[in-house]
MFS transporter (Siminovitchia terrae), 481 residues
Amino acid sequence: MANEVRSSEKAFWSIISAVFFGNFLAVMNTSTVNIAVPAIMGEFSTHLPTVQWTVTGFMLAAGAAAPSAGWFGARFGYKRVYIAALSGFFLFSVICILSSSIEMLIIARMVQGVFSGIMMPATMTLIYQTIDKSKQAYGISLWSLSSALAPAVGPVLAGFLIDIFDWRALFYFNLPVSAGAIIAAVKFLPDTDKGEKTPFDFWGLVFSFGGSILMLTAFAKAGTWGWTDVKTLSLVGTGAFLLLLFVKRELKIEFPLLNFSVFQHRRFAYGIILNAILSIALYAGAFLVPIFLQTSLNLRALHTGLIMMPGAFVMAFFTPITGKLYNKIGPLPLIMAGLIVMAIGTFMMGELTIETTALYVIVWTSIRYLGIALCNMPIINVGMSAVPLQVAGYASALNNWTRQCIASLSIALFSGLIAYRSNIRLEAGGDLSTASAAAAGDVFLISLIPLIIAVPLTLLLREKRQSGENKILAGQKVKNQ
């Protein structure tokens, strides 16, 4: 019996190692290039709106590709899909290093984003398919640690590498980590079954991609154009219409790119809403804090990363503890506590001014990350554990598509809001640094609104009695459809 326990424990950590680093890379690459934007502008002698596509293009492509992960996983098996995505990520990291023009770099980053968008839902699904149910909550806590830790660690690593080498060092770093993840996936991940041949929903992908890019552009430009400008409203309206067509199409066709029928499971639907709110809060900090530190306090990239590091350590410490507590006290107390802690930290970050000290930022950023550590995994697991195994891959893809789209739109929205609030503060008097500092605080307070709304929504996650057949069965492979 003792040997069986040790073998099960070894298998658990082997599987976690195989998915952890792949997911960490995918998420980290959405934020590290932010730090490299000035260096890339200098090398290619181009302007910020163009270079910014190395970041937004990656995120957009990842969000557009996420819906297809469910189809690819069900068709070819999630282990094969994950390894293929890791291999593509490795290849296009090499192409990013070899880029000789900004256009080549942007294209390479967007293709890299496609593979990233497939990797994230694939890793989540693999945990539910290959890990025993008794350890799924702990496994997802470690998976969510990789998702939440990457935006915090990324700026530190990026600042260090760029200061010592240059921006290409970010992509050199990807190579050994992705190669190691490929080897671990081949060696440690159990095989997952392939499904029947089904048609690929090309038009669904077109509607999803088109709607996402129009919405993203509108949110990013709203601060410059104005929120009521005809261009802003036209892009929002057209983008929303395309996304509506996408949802209607997916509900009608026999083989959808995203299976929206998973929303019939009440707890999964509420979990998606809370996951979207948490993503807004997470990326508010990941985006606003570096801007405040570098624009208002004029700190270097490395110093910015070091100030954000304590929060990363807090999250790294408490996330596994949350996984252990989940089975003892249940998800609701953890989610409620996490949201309240995050709301307190976010409110205090709303007090940012040009006089704010680095210690103040460290303390309240760490408080926010403590809140994330308490509620991130429970929100994911409470929703995913409510859906049947045969659609778990589609639920995972929908979960990650929502998170990626919300992250992209949040960054674009916060970018527009901080420009808008900075202009208002400038008109009221003061210099640019003072105005941008106060504007960062204003946007933090705006990001507090969804957190407040989320607190009572948590009560909707109360579990009704249901048979075990309606929940994900642990340790089973995907059955042929």
